[in-house]
Amino acid sequence: MKVVIVGGVAGGATAAARIRRLNEQAEIVVFERSGYISYANCGLPYYIGDVITDRSDLTLQTPESFFSRFHVNMKVRHEVTAIHPEKKEVTVKNLETGEEFEESYDKLILSPGAKPTQPRLPGVGLDKLFTLRTVEDTFCIKDYINANHPKSAVLAGGGFIGLELAENLRELGMDVTIVQRPKQLMNPFDADMASFIHNEMRKHGVKLALGHTVEGFEERDGGVDVLLKDEQPLHADMVILAIGVSPETTLAKDAGLELGIKGSIVVNDRMETSISDIYAVGDAVQVKHFVTGQDALISLAGPANKQGRIAADNICGGDSHYTGSQGSSVIKVFDMTAATTGVNETNARKAGLDVDTVILSPMSHAGYYPGGKVMTMKVVFEKATYRLLGAQIVGYEGVDKRIDVLATAIRAGMKATELKDLDLAYAPPYSSAKDPVNMAGFMVENIANGVLKQWHLEDADRLPRDGSVTLLDTRTVEEFAHGHIDGFFNIPVDELRERLGELDKRKPVYVICQSGLRSYIACRILAGNGFDCYNFSGGFRFYDAVTNDRCLIESATACGMDRA
Amino acid sequence: MKVVIVGGVAGGATAAARIRRLNEQAEIVVFERSGYISYANCGLPYYIGDVITDRSDLTLQTPESFFSRFHVNMKVRHEVTAIHPEKKEVTVKNLETGEEFEESYDKLILSPGAKPTQPRLPGVGLDKLFTLRTVEDTFCIKDYINANHPKSAVLAGGGFIGLELAENLRELGMDVTIVQRPKQLMNPFDADMASFIHNEMRKHGVKLALGHTVEGFEERDGGVDVLLKDEQPLHADMVILAIGVSPETTLAKDAGLELGIKGSIVVNDRMETSISDIYAVGDAVQVKHFVTGQDALISLAGPANKQGRIAADNICGGDSHYTGSQGSSVIKVFDMTAATTGVNETNARKAGLDVDTVILSPMSHAGYYPGGKVMTMKVVFEKATYRLLGAQIVGYEGVDKRIDVLATAIRAGMKATELKDLDLAYAPPYSSAKDPVNMAGFMVENIANGVLKQWHLEDADRLPRDGSVTLLDTRTVEEFAHGHIDGFFNIPVDELRERLGELDKRKPVYVICQSGLRSYIACRILAGNGFDCYNFSGGFRFYDAVTNDRCLIESATACGMDRA
Q1: Are A404 and A437 in contact (CB under 8 A)?
Q2: Please, are residues B14 and B108 in contact by the beta-carbon 8 Å criterion?
Q3: Separation in Å, CA of A430 to nearest CA in chain B
Q4: Residue A42 bears catalytic tag
Q5: Would you say residue B10 has pLDDT above 80?
Q6: What 3-state DSSP class applies to B440?
Q7: Which string of DSSP letters, residue by residue, matches A111-135?
C-alpha cells in the first residue's frame, strides 16, 4: 500500500506516524509546501514575543528525525498542484528546483490546512504588511522586527492569532492597536464575556479600535496608514493581517471533491471525501458541530490531530469515527485566561435553540487560602431540556480546568442540572468544596425547581423606572455609594428582613448585588414573604465590566487611539 | 417547622443555610460542640505553617454573621448528648455553663463529623501528643509551637492530614518524620503511584518510617519517645497523631439508628436515616461508592456539602438524591500535586473487578512552551467492558485539571476508550493538542484493538532471564548506560529496523523505554515484522522511581531516620 499525504503539519504528520505504527510495510510519502513539518503552529506568536527563544523548538520533528523513527518520506518545499483521482496520481512541484512530477497513490490524505484570509483591499501587497501562519511567516516578522525595531503595530483582526500577537508585541514594548469591524474580539465568546477580554487588553496598553472598517493601506512616513471608512486612518510602523483563515482547498476543488462551507472539503465521519480512497483532515474539512449538529468550520489543532489518527486507522483497515468538534479553546490574554466550549448564547440562538444562561463569579480556590482569584463563568443550556450547550470562562488560575470539566460534561451529554453532582477533587490550593462547576449546577437546578428566577443584562435598560416594579440593590451602603444602576435603591441583604415594610408586595422585585449571591439570598427572603422576585445573573460586577467596555467602544476617543 | 441540626461545620452549616433559603418561616437551631461554626477544616494545617496567617480566615462565618444573614440560631459550645426519637427531642448540654436542656424538633439533621482515631496505646494522653481536627486543635498546636519552639515532630499516620502537616511543619524549619505501619503513604493511591509522593516528601527532607508499628509513647529528655515494635524508638519534641478518623456516631447509636461500616450512620439516597424525620450527612454517614456500588466511608468536604444541601431540599418538601461518592481528592505535596478519583487498582481488585491499567508520562503543556512539567498518570479500567473505574495523577501543573476531567468522565459513565474523543481546550500554555487525558484514551483504544499489548511492573522480576524471551530496552545508548533493568539489552528505537536480525522471531519480546512512547513504537515495528511484542506501561522512568522508593523503605537506615 502506498499512501500519499498532502501537508505535513498537525493532521498530516499525525496520520503519517499512525499509519506507520499500524502498517510497517506501507510506503508513506508526505508533501509539505513549506520548509518545515510537524511544527508548533500554536506556538508561533510566542516566538515573536521571545517567550519561545529557540527556533528549533518550533519544529517538533525534522524530515530526518521523522524518517529515522517512522520511515516516512517527508518531502518539504514540495507542493501538490493537482489530484488525478481517475489514475490515482498527484502532480507535485519541487519548489526548490521547479521540477514537476507525478506520484501515484493507493490512498491519499489531504491535510492542506487553512490560509490567512487576505482582504481584497488597496495596498494589501505592501512589504510592511504581514500575515502569520507558517514558520516562514514567523521568521519573516521576527527578522523584520529585529532589523527595523518598529515601535508600533496595527493588527487587523481580533481572533486567536490577533490577540496572541498583540500580547507578544506588547511584551516587546511596541505600541499595539487592534482594528476590526466587529465590536467584540474573540467571536467564540458572547459580547458580554468578551468585555472582560477587552478590559484586560486595555489594562495592558493594547488599543482597541472595534467597529471600524479597514478600507486599505498606504505607505507613509516610513510606516503604514491603515485607511478606515469615514474616519481618520490609523498609523503604525507595521501591520499584521489576522482577519481569519480560509480552508486551503483549491486542490480539492479542482479534483472535483464535494465542497462545503467556505469551500471546505466535505468528509464523512470516517474522514472520507466524496471520492473513494481520498481522505481529508484538519482545518480544510467541514465538521459536524457536536452541540448543534450543524455543519461547521472549526480550525483547531486538537480536532486536526484526532482526525489524522482516524483517517490513518481507516486506511489501515480499521473503523474509526470522528464524533464531531465542540470548539473547546483557551487563550492566554496577558495575565488572564479566557476559555470556551460548545456554543455560546449568540450562536445557540442563531442555531434556533431556546436557551437560558447562568453567570457566576466564583473563586478559583478556597477564599481562605492565599492567591485565589475571581473568575467569571457563563453556562448556556437549553431551556426545556436543561441540556448543557456551552460555557465560557474568563479569569486567572483554574479557568482552563473548569472549561475542560464542562467540555467533558457536554461531550457526555450531561444536563446542566447534573453539574451539581460532579464529584471533583478539592483541597484549599486547588478549589472549593463547592467547585465553581458545581455552583453553576446548583444555580441551574434552582431555576429548574422554580427556586431562582432571573433577569439578564439586556433587561437592565428595559426595566420600567415608573414605580411599577421595585429595583433593589442588596449590597452594603458603601458598595452602593461607590456605583450602582440608575433607578435602583439600596437595602443591604442583612437588613432586608427588618425593612420589608419599605417594599410593596404587589410589585415584582428585580434584585442585584455584587456577584449574584447576596441578591439570590435576598430573593429567597422576599419570595418567602410573598414577593415575586428576580435575581440579576452576574451581579453588579458583571454589569459594570460590560457597560464600561461598551461605553469605551462607542466613544472612540476614550479608547485613546493614536490618530494619523 | 422546627429543624435542629447537630454540627455546624460543612454539612450542617450548608443544610442550615439551604433550609432558610427554601423556607423563610422555619425555625432552625444548630448545636455545635466546638467554639466555631462553618470553619475551613481543610485549611487548618496551613494555619500551622503560616500559609494562612489570619485566625479569622479559618472561620468562614461567625454565629452572628450567620444569624444576621440566615436567621439561624447557631449555638456553639453546645453538645447534643442524646436523641429521643419517640418524643422528637434532643438533650443538649451547654458546655460553658454545664446546664442541660431538652430541645424539640420536627426534623433533625445529624452532621457530627468524624473524630481523629485515638490508638489504645500507652502514653496516648501525654501533653506533647496532639491531634488535628478542629479550630481549637489547630490553635493548640500553633500555640505550643510558638511557646516551645520544638525542633522536631513525629507524625503518626500518612494520610491527608499527616502529609499536609508534614509540609507545614517543614516550612517552619522543623525536622519531621512520618511513621506508620503501612508501607505506603496516602492509601487512596496504589503503592506504585505513592512512590512519587514518597520521593517528593524525602526530597523536601521529610523522613519516612514506613512499615513500622507504633506501640506507645514515653516522655524523655523534654520530648517524646515513639516506641516501635522490635525497633529502637523515634524521638521528637512533639508528636501529632494523624492515623485517620472514625465516624462520630455515639449519639446515633444510642438513639437506635441503623449503623454501618465502623459505626457510621446508614442513610438512603435522600439522606434519611432508619428513623423517620432524622437525616444525617457528612463524614459520619455511610455512602455508596459511585464506582464499585459498595458501601463506603468517604470523609471529604465536597460530599458533605452536597449531602447537606440534599437533606435540606428533602426536609423542605423537595426530592433530591445523593448519587454516591467517588472519592475525588487532591493534595499539595510541597511543589507537587497528587490527585485521585474513582477506585485505584488495588481496591478495584479487592472489589472483585477484573481490571487493566495504562500508565503514561505526558507533559502538562506543549513541550515547546516554557515551564511544562511531566506528570505520571495511571488510568484504571474494567478489562471486559473498558468502563473507566479510576485514575491517579502525580506531577505539578495541570494535575488537578486532568483528575477533574477524569472524575467527570467517570461520573458520566464513559468508557476509557472514549477519553480519546474528548474535545478539550488547547493552547500552548495550558495543554497539548493531544491532551494527557486523550493520550490515555488512545492507549486504551490501542489495547482494545489489539494494537498494544502490555507488561506491568509486577512482571519485571518474574520475566525469565534464561533466554526464552527477549528483553529489549529501546532508549539511546547513553540512557541505557545510565541505568537499566538487569537482563535487558539495548537497541535504540531508531536503529531497530536495521538491527532486526539480532532478534529471534520465535521469542516474545518485552520492550521498555524511558516513558513508554518509544517502546510502543518499537513494539509496532516488531509486530509489523512478525514478532509477539509487549510494551512496559510507564517506562523506565516509572520503574526506576518505584523500585528506588521500595529499596529505601526496606532499608530503614537509608531513610536517614534519627534514632533515639
Answers
A1: no
A2: no
A3: 7
A4: yes
A5: yes
A6: helix
A7: ---EEE-----TTTT-TTEEE-SSH
User: A423, B302: Cβ pair inside 8 Å?
Assistant: yes
User: Is the separation of the CB atoms in A388 and A403 below 8 Å?
Assistant: no
Residues of A in contact with B447 (CB under 8 A): none
Q: Which residue type does A219 have?
A: E
Asked whether B416 and B410 are in contact (CB, 8 A), the reply is no
Phi and psi angles of residue B483, each rounded to the nearest 5 degrees, phi first? 155, 135
Strand partners, B109: B5, B279
Separation between Cα atoms, residue A115 and residue A133, nearest integer Å: 7
Which residues are registered as beta bridge partners of B39? B59
pLDDT digits (tens, 9 = 90+) for B283-309: 999 999 999 999 999 999 999 999 999
Look at residues A137, A138, A113, A102 and name the one whose alpha carbon lies nearest to residue A2: A102
**Phi then psi dihedrals of residue A489, to 5 deg:** -120, 165
Contact B22 A451 (CB under 8 A): yes
Q: Please name every residue paired with B333 in a beta bridge, in sequence order, or none if there are none.
A: B336
Q: How many Cα atoms are found within 13 Å in the side-chain-facing hemisphere of B207?
A: 23
Do you know the residue count of chain B?
564
CA separation for the pair A414, A409 (Å, rounded): 5
Chain A residues with beta carbon closer than 8 angstroms to that of B424 = 302, 328, 404, 407-408
Out of A43, A69, A431, closest to residue B493 by CB: A69
Identity of the amino acid at A43 = G
Q: Which amino acid is present at A23?
A: N
C-alpha dist (Å) from residue A25 to A405, B322, B363: 41, 54, 31
End-to-end CA distance of chain A: give it in Å, rounded: 61
To which residue does cell 488495588 refer?
A: B346
* Alpha carbon distances (Å) from B459 to B376, B446, B470: 20, 21, 14
Contacts of B334 (CB under 8 A, 6+ apart): B167, B170, B200, B201, B203, B204
At B301, which amino acid appears?
A: A
Unique residue bearing C-alpha cell 476614550 = A558
The pLDDT tens digits for A102-131 are 999 999 999 999 999 888 999 998 999 999
Q: List the domains of chain A with CATH numbers.
A: 2-115+246-315 (3.50.50.60), 129-206+215-243 (3.50.50.60), 335-448 (3.50.50.60), 454-537 (3.40.250.10)
Q: Are strands B27-32 and B2-6 parallel, antiparallel or unpaired?
A: parallel
Rounded to the nearest angstrom, the gap between the alpha carbon of residue B290 and the centroid of all alpha carbons in its chain is 16
Q: How far apart are CA A154 and CA A240, in angstroms?
A: 6
Q: Count CB pairs under 8 A between chains A and B.
A: 237
Contacts 24+ apart (CB under 8 A), B60-63: B60/A367, B60/A368, B61/B13, B61/B37, B62/B37, B63/B37
Does residue A256 sit in helix, strand or coil? coil
The label of the residue with cell 490527585 reads B339
The SS3 call for residue A443 is: helix
Q: What is the ipTM of this complex?
A: 0.96
- The grid coordinates listed for A43 are 506556538
Chain centroid to CA B74: 32
Using DSSP, state whether B549 is helix, strand or coil. helix
Residue type, B12: G
Cell of B56: 479569622
Distance CA B75, CA A31 (A): 76
Mutation target to probe the A interface, by most A beta carbons within 10 A, among B423, B445, B524 is B423
Q: What is the mean pLDDT of chain A?
A: 95
Question: In Å, how far are A21, A129, A136, B223 from A143, measured between CA atoms?
Answer: 39, 14, 10, 68
Beta-strand relationship, A470-473 and A509-512 = parallel
Q: A118 vs A144, which has greater pLDDT?
A: A144
CB contact under 8 Å between B411 and A423, yes or no, is yes
B68, B367, B414: residue with CB nearest A412: B414
pLDDT confidence bin for A41, thresholds 50/70/90:
confident
